[in-house]
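Listing S7. Sequence submitted for prediction.
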Amino acid sequence: MDKELEDLSVRVGQALLERKSMLACAESCTGGWVAEVVTATGGSSQWFERGYVTYSNAAKQELLGVRAETLREQGAVSEAVVREMAAGTLRRSHAQAALAISGVAGPTGGSPDKPVGTVCFAWVLRDGVPTAETVHFSGEREAVRRQSVIHALQGLLRKLS
């Protein structure tokens, strides 16, 4: 793992430990990369509870409770869906903090409304309301996914502070 991701993971772990909290994540376009980054950090079992890779719409519904209506009306790459993913992650885990990611990493799958590089994020703390945002990254698939992991962890740090 590169130094930037490693340092970011350590900072996330410290912030969670200070709050006596654990993290759970729900990932689509990153395919478990957030979970990989945090579990590569020594001692992460003290602050990482679980991760869901919910690549398909069916997985989002079955594992996280995302409503079929939300997927149909907003699409999988939407702030509404990642909010439901994050909330469902907290409901179905023992964590106190959750993040969710869904996007179009490319090279195909984009549309005029949601071009390649469009990624939606959500973060939520136990008993809180999920916050979400959409970011447009540039680059090839790997670059979009890596930037998404960084953005998700940085957003979590902001939520925890």
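Caption to Listing S7: primary sequence and predicted structure tokens for the chain studied. The first helix runs from residue 3 to 18. The beta strands are 23-27, 48-53, 97-103, 118-125, 131-136.
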